[in-house]
Design a protein that fits this description.
The chain is mainly alpha-helical. Helix content is 54%, strand content 6%. Helix 2 packs across helix 5. It is elongated. The chain starts with a helix and ends in a 16-residue tail after the last helix.
Length: 128
């Protein structure tokens, strides 16, 4: 029930994906990588497909199971900041907060340390 509660404010596609993958972080990764874009989700994936490279083969196949053969609009997840705010305000250890919200302990640490932005600020932009 954690994932369902944590993903309740996500747009429908991301919520479905988070629940099916049992991982809210992977849904947020999809949004941060392709949010605002219309993409075609193939019925069968190859190792070099952009979704496999972004999400990993298993997670990309979950998306295929949900929406294979469809063109889908990937939501640009604006509530990401609301989740981050809830994580920062939560009381408890990083582990307990991560379990509560269905995210990684590393993400909780990043939020609490003030750098849990949608894009990891330690990484340079590929096109800069």
């Amino acid at each position: 029930m954690r994932i369902e509660q944590a993903s309740a404010n996500l747009p429908e596609l991301l919520q479905e994906f988070a629940i099916a993958a049992d991982n809210i972080s992977i849904a947020l990764k999809l949004s941060s990588s392709y949010g605002g874009q219309n993409i075609y989700v193939p019925k069968n994936l190859k190792e070099d497909h952009f979704l496999v490279q972004c999400l990993g083969f298993d997670a990309a196949n979950i998306l295929v199971d949900l929406r294979g053969g469809e063109k889908v609009d990937i939501p640009n997840c604006k509530i990401f900041n609301a989740l981050k705010s809830r994580i920062i305000k939560s009381v408890g250890s990083n582990r307990n907060v991560a379990k509560k919200f269905g995210v990684t302990e590393r993400y909780v640490r990043m939020c609490r340390n003030g750098n849990g932005s949608q894009h990891d600020i330690r990484q340079q932009n590929l096109f800069d």
